[in-house]
Amino acid sequence: MSSSYSDETHLLYIPANNGMCGEFKGVDKPLVKGQLWLGADIDTINLLTPRLEHIGELQAWDINAGKQVWMHPFQYQLFDSVLATAGNLVFTGGTNDRMFRAFDARTGQVLWQRRTNSGITAMPVAFQVGDTEYIAVQSGWGVDAARMQARLNLVRPWEFPDVPQGGSIWVFALD
C-alpha cells in the first residue's frame, strides 16, 4: 500500500493497520508451476492483537515535525493506497465495506463516500480533461486482500464481512 505526500499541506498520508502481527516460517518446497508458492508456511501467522477498538487507520504526518496531525480509524483493515491532490483532498478505498472516500487533507474529515461493487485495493489516480478534473479507481478486492480477509476470519471467525469480487473502473468528476 502506497503513501502519498502533498506539496500543499506538507503532510504525508499513510494507510496503516494496527495489531496485525505474526511470522512466516521459511520452507524448502519445490516450485510447482500453476500452484501458489510463497517460500513460507503461512499457517503459522497469528494476525490480530486481542480486543482492538479498530484495525485500519488513515494517518496524516507532518514529516518535518515528526508528529501525527490527524488519524481516521477504520473498524477493519485498510488495504489500499492513498492519493493526495493539489485541491487538498485525500482519496482511499481499501476497506471491506467497499467504500471509496474523499477526506479533507488538512483535518481528516470525511467529505464524501461512495459504495462500490467490490473492495478497492488499486491506487486511485487523478487526471484532467479540459477544465474538469477526474479521480479514477478500480474496484476489485483481489487475491491478496481476499487472503488477508480469510486470515483475519481464522482469528475472529466471520467477524470480517465477505467482499464480493469485482473488476470495474469507477470515475468521478470533481467540481
Topology, element by element:
Elements: E1 4-6, E2 11-17, E3 25-26, E4 40-41, E5 56-62, E6 67-74, E7 83-84, E8 89-92, E9 99-104, E10 110-115, E11 125-129, E12 132-139, H1 142-155, E13 168-174
Antiparallel strand pairs: 1-2, 2-5, 3-4, 5-6, 7-8, 8-9, 9-10, 11-12, 12-13
Task: Describe the structure in your own words.
The chain has 175 residues and is mainly beta. The protein is 8% helix and 38% strand. It has one helix and 13 strands. The strands form four sheets. A four-stranded antiparallel sheet has the order 1-2-5-6, with no helix packed on it. It has a four-stranded antiparallel sheet with strand order 7-8-9-10, with no helix packed on it. The longest helix has 14 residues, at 142-155. The chain is globular.
Task: Give a short summary of the structure.
This protein is mainly beta and 175 residues long.
Query: Whole-number radius of gyration?
Result: 18 Å
Strand line-up in the sheet with most strands: 1-2-5-6
- Return the CATH architecture: Beta Barrel
Order of helix and strand elements from N to C terminus: EEEEEEEEEEEEHE
Shape: globular
Please mark out the parts with pLDDT under 50 across 5 or more consecutive residues, or reply none. none
